[in-house]
Specification:
CATH topology of chain B: Rossmann fold
Number of domains of chain A: 3
Low-confidence stretches of chain B: none
Structural class of chain A: alpha+beta
Number of helices of chain B: 5
CATH class of chain B: Alpha Beta
Number of strands of chain A: 17
Helix content of chain A: 40-55%
Largest sheet of chain A: 6 strands, antiparallel
Shape of chain B: globular
Number of domains of chain B: 1
Helix content of chain B: 40-55%
Strand order of the largest sheet of chain B: 2-1-3-4-5
CATH superfamily of chain B: Response regulator
CATH topology of the largest domain in chain A: Beta-Lactamase
CATH class of the largest domain in chain A: Alpha Beta
Oligomer: heterodimer
Number of strands of chain B: 5
Radius of gyration of chain A: 60 Å
Mean pLDDT of chain B: 82
Strand content of chain B: 5-15%
Largest sheet of chain B: 5 strands, parallel
Distance between the termini of chain B: 18 Å
Order of helices and strands of chain B: EHEHEHEHEH
Distance between the termini of chain A: 86 Å
Low-confidence stretches of chain A: 264-284, 604-612
Largest interface: A-B, 25 and 21 residues
Chain lengths: ~600, ~150
C-alpha cells in the first residue's frame, strides 16, 4: 500500500517525462511501421519485376528451342531428301552442342507405317542419342498423344514430365542417365500436299522433328540475366505442386509444395511422400507467387519465391534501424525530461526550504527586535538611576563629601553615561544589520555636507576645515549611508581635535577608482592617525587604538561602517601613520579589482620609504 | 487652580527623578502618579480606585511611560484618544526606548511629543524644563464646550 502510494506519487510528479516517453514511443512505432510497410512494398515491386523478367526469360529460352525445330523442318522443306550427313551438317551449323545445351537430342522421326514412327536421325551424335535411332516413341502413350496433337495442330507440342536419356556427367559411374525433361514434337508434312485442315494434315504427315529437352539444362540459368538471384523458381507441369510434375527447380529445394502445405491445401502427406529436402525455416511473410503459362499446348505453373537473402536489400534494415534509433531517442528524451522535471521539483523543494528558512529568519529577527527593545529600555533604566542619584548626591550632599568622594561620584556618573552610549551604539550596530537594504540614488556630497554641518554645530568652539568634493552620486540606502558618513566624518572630526589647523576631506580617489574599476571614496584627516600594524583591527567592534582619556568613543563606529559597506557589497579599508592623519577608503559596489589589504601594505611601505 | 500633571510610571526611581527634575525647574504642579496603565485609565475615567472622582478636573499634561505593567503605554494612549473626554489631553511620551517603531507608533496614536529619558540626569532635567515650559506655561488646552 505504501509502495503503491510511492509509485503513484512518483508518476504524478514525473507525469511530463512519462508522457514524453509515451508520445516518443508511439511516434517511433508509427515511423517504424510505415518504413516497414514501405520496405515491404518496394520489395514486392522488386519481386514482381523479377517474376516478370523470369517469365519473359523463360519464354525466350523456349522460343529458341522451338526455333531450332522449325529450322530443322525448314531443312527438310528445302531439300527433296535429307541424308544423315546433311542432318549432321545442319546440327553442326547450328553449333547445337555449344549453343543449345538445353537440347539433349534433336532428331528426325520418319513415318514408316500407320502406327510406326521410329527415330531416323539424331544429333548431336553421342552414345545416349545413338541408341535412340530406330526407337519408336509412338508406341509410348504419352508420346503418342503429343505426336497426334502436334500432327493435328501443325505446331510444336510437348509432352508432360518424362525422362530423357542423356550421357552421364564426367566422373559418374554409369554411362547413361535419365534426366527429368520433356519431349517436343513438330510435325512435318509432305511437300506439295495441302495441310490447312486437320484432315489434310493427317493425310500429309510425313514425320516429326523431335527435341529432347532435359529441363535442368533447358531452363538452367533463366534467372541469371535478371538482377536478383535471391529468388527461387520452380516449374511444374500442369496444376498441383507435386514432385511428380516438377519440371525444374532452380535451387533444388522444393518450396511450392511446402508453401501449399503451410497454406493447408495439400497437407503434410506430400512432403512425407516426396522426401525431398525441405526449407528449414519459413517466414510466412516472405514473398511468393505462382503464375500459369501456356507452353506448346500444355499448361505450366511457375512458382517464384523470394529467398531469405532477397529482402536484405539496401533498405531492409531500415525499419529496425528506425525502431532502434527511435527507441534510443525516446529514452534520451525521457531521460532529459525526467532530469528537468526532477531539477524543477528539487528547485521547488529547495524553494520551500528557503521559504521555511526565511520564515525562521523573520521569527529570529522579530525575537532580536524584541531583545533589542528590552535592552534599550530596561538596561538603561538602572543606569538612569545610578546617574540620577549620583547627581542628586553631588548636588544635595556636596558639603558632606570631601573632594575625593565627589571625584568618585563623578566617575560613577561618567561610567554610567558611557555605558548608556555603549548601549545606544550597540543597538545602532545591530540595527544596521537588520531590515531590508533600500537602494536609491543619493548625492553623497550633499549628505557629507549635512553631516559636516551637524558636526560643526555640535562643537562651535572648534575650527575644522571641511573639503567636500561636489557631485558624487551613488546608489545606496539613504539611512545607512548617512550613518556610515556620520561615523567616518565624526571620527575624522574627533581625531583632529588636537590639531591646530584641522582638515577633513571627502571625495573620490580617481587613481584607485581606475585601478579597482569601481568608484573608491575616501575620508581623510590630518589628525592623530594610527599605526598601520593595527589597520585590520580598526573595524572590529570595541576595538580602540586610543585610550578613552585621549579620545572618547565606544569603538563601535567603524564596525558599524564596515557592516554598512559590506551590506552594499563594498569594501572598506584604512591607511594612516601616527601623527600624520588617517585615510578611510570605501566602495559601495561589488567588484573591486584589487585586494585592499595588499594595496594597503604597498602604500604603507611606500610611505615608510618616503618618510625616511 | 493648580494644574495637575499625571505621571504614568512604574519605576519608583524614575518617578523620584522625574519629580526632582520638575522641582529643579520650579514646576510646582500637583503630580498624580499612576503605577500602571490600568491605574492611569481609572484615574482619567473615574473608575476602579478612582470611582467617583471629580471628572471635571483633568490633568494639564500626561507624562506617559511606554513600558508599563498590565496595559502598556501605547494601549493607554489609544484608549485615551478613543474617548471624547480625554481625546484632546496633551500626552508626552517619556521613555527610555529609542526604537524608531515606538516613535512612529507613539505619534501615530496621537502623542503630542516624545521625550527620551537620557541616562545623563543633567540632560533629563533640561528636557523636563523644556517640556514644562511648553505644556504647562505656553500651551493652552482647548476648553471643552460649556
Amino acid at each position: 500500500m505504501h509502495l503503491l502510494g510511492a509509485v503513484l506519487g512518483h508518476l504524478r510528479r514525473a507525469i511530463l517525462a512519462y508522457a514524453v516517453l509515451l508520445v516518443a514511443l508511439i511516434l517511433t512505432f508509427l515511423a517504424s511501421y510505415y518504413v516497414r510497410q514501405n520496405a515491404e512494398a518496394s520489395a514486392r515491386v522488386r519481386f514482381d519485376d523479377t517474376v516478370q523478367t523470369s517469365r519473359e526469360a523463360m519464354g525466350r529460352r523456349l522460343e529458341r528451342y522451338v526455333n531450332v525445330m522449325f529450322g530443322a523442318r525448314g531443312l527438310f522443306s528445302a531439300s527433296s531428301a535429307v541424308s544423315e550427313d546433311e542432318w549432321g551438317g545442319f546440327a553442326d551449323g547450328l553449333e547445337l552442342e555449344r549453343r543449345y545445351e538445353g537440347i539433349q537430342m534433336l532428331g528426325y522421326v520418319r513415318q514408316e507405317g500407320p502406327d510406326s514412327y521410329p527415330i531416323a536421325y539424331v544429333q548431336p551424335s553421342n552414345k545416349a542419342n545413338e541408341g535412340l535411332v530406330g526407337y519408336d516413341p509412338y508406341r509410348m502413350a504419352a508420346d503418342r498423344a503429343t505426336m497426334d496433337r502436334a500432327r493435328d495442330t501443325g505446331n510444336v507440342e510437348v509432352t508432360g514430365k518424362t525422362f530423357v536419356l542423356s550421357e552421364a556427367p564426367p566422373k559418374s559411374l554409369a554411362d547413361l542417365v535419365l534426366e527429368e525433361g520433356i519431349v517436343a514434337y513438330l510435325p512435318m508434312y509432305r511437300k506439295g500436299e495441302p495441310h490447312g485442315t486437320v484432315v489434310e494434315r493427317r493425310r500429309a504427315l510425313e514425320g516429326y522433328v523431335v527435341a529432347y529437352l532435359p529441363m535442368n539444362r533447358a531452363l538452367k540459368g533463366i534467372l541469371d540475366g535478371s538482377y536478383d538471384p535471391s529468388v527461387d523458381v520452380e516449374v511444374y507441369d500442369g496444376e498441383g505442386f507435386t514432385p511428380k510434375n516438377l519440371l525444374y527447380d532452380d535451387d533444388g529445394v522444393r518450396r511450392a509444395s511446402e508453401a501449399q502445405e503451410a497454406a493447408g491445401s495439400f497437407g503434410g502427406a506430400v512432403a512425407e511422400v516426396t522426401g525431398l529436402p525441405i526449407g528449414k525455416s519459413r517466414d510466412p511473410s516472405s514473398l511468393s507467387d505462382s503464375v500459369p503459362v501456356e507452353v506448346a499446348g500444355r499448361e505450366w505453373n511457375l512458382y517464384f519465391e523470394a529467398l531469405p537473402g532477397f529482402d536484405r536489400g539496401a533498405n531492409s534494415r531500415l525499419p529496425l534501424f528506425v525502431l532502434l534509433s527511435g527507441l534510443g531517442v525516446s529514452l534520451l528524451l525521457f531521460g532529459i525530461t525526467y532530469m528537468l522535471v526532477r531539477a524543477r521539483l528539487r528547485a521547488e523543494e529547495a524553494g520551500l526550504g528557503l521559504e521555511e528558512a526565511n520564515r525562521e529568519l523573520e521569527v529570529t529577527n522579530r525575537e532580536l527586535e524584541a531583545f533589542s527593545y528590552s535592552v534599550s529600555h530596561d538596561l538603561r533604566a538602572p543606569l538612569r538611576s545610578i546617574d540620577g542619584f549620583s547627581q542628586i548626591l553631588l548636588e544635595d550632599y556636596a558639603d558632606d563629601l570631601d573632594e575625593e568622594g565627589r571625584d568618585y561620584l563623578g566617575r560613577v556618573r561618567a561610567a554610567s553615561q558611557r555605558m548608556g552610549r555603549l548601549i545606544d551604539d550597540l543597538l545602532g550596530l545591530s540595527r544596521v544589520t537588520r531590515g531590508a537594504l533600500r537602494r536609491e540614488r543619493l548625492n553623497l556630497s550633499s549628505l557629507a555636507r549635512e553631516v559636516a554641518d551637524g558636526l560643526r554645530e555640535s562643537r562651535p568652539d572648534r575650527e575644522v576645515d571641511f573639503e567636500i568634493e561636489d557631485g558624487i552620486e551613488v546608489d545606496g540606502d539613504p539611512h545607512l549611508i548617512r550613518v556610515a558618513l556620520t561615523n567616518l566624518l565624526g571620527n575624522a572630526f574627533k581625531f583632529t581635535e588636537k590639531e591646530e589647523r584641522a582638515r577633513v576631506s571627502f571625495g573620490e580617489d580617481r587613481r584607485l577608482s581606475e585601478l579597482g574599476r569601481v568608484p573608491v571614496y575616501y575620508v581623510r584627516d590630518n589628525g592623530a592617525g594610527f599605526e598601520m600594524e593595527y589597520a585590520d583591527k580598526l573595524f572590529g567592534a570595541f576595538q580602540r587604538l586610543h585610550g578613552t582619556d585621549e579620545f572618547e568613543g565606544t569603538g563601535i563606529g567603524l564596525a558599524t561602517v564596515q557592516r554598512i559597506v559590506h551590506r552594499h557589497g563594498g569594501r572598506v579599508w584604512a591607511e594612516g601613520r601616527v601623527g600624520h592623519g588617517a585615510s578611510f577608503f570605501f566602495t559601495l559596489r561589488p567588484g573591486l579589482q584589487f585586494d585592499p589589504s595588499r594595496a594597503l601594505a604597498r602604500e604603507g611601505s611606500r610611505e615608510e620609504a618616503g618618510a625616511r | 487652580m493648580s494644574k495637575i500633571i499625571l505621571l504614568v510610571e512604574d519605576n519608583p526611581d524614575d518617578e523620584l527623578l522625574t519629580r526632582r527634575a520638575l522641582k529643579k525647574n520650579n514646576i510646582g504642579n500637583e503630580v498624580v502618579v499612576a503605577r500602571d496603565g490600568v491605574e492611569a485609565l481609572d484615574y482619567l475615567f473615574g473608575t476602579g480606585a478612582y470611582e467617583g472622582r471629580d471628572l471635571s478636573v483633568m490633568p494639564q499634561v500626561i507624562l506617559l511611560d511606554l513600558k508599563l505593567p498590565k496595559l502598556d503605554g501605547l494601549e493607554v494612549l489609544r484608549r485615551l484618544r478613543g474617548n471624547e473626554r480625554t481625546s484632546l489631553l496633551p500626552v508626552v511620551i517619556l521613555t527610555s526606548s529609542k526604537e524608531q517603531q515606538d516613535l512612529v507608533d507613539g505619534y501615530g496614536y496621537g502623542a503630542n511629543s516624545y521625550i527620551r529619558k537620557p541616562v545623563d540626569f543633567a540632560q533629563f532635567i533640561e528636557a523636563v524644563r523644556q517640556l514644562g515650559l511648553y505644556w504647562l506655561v505656553l500651551n493652552e488646552t482647548p476648553r471643552r464646550g460649556g
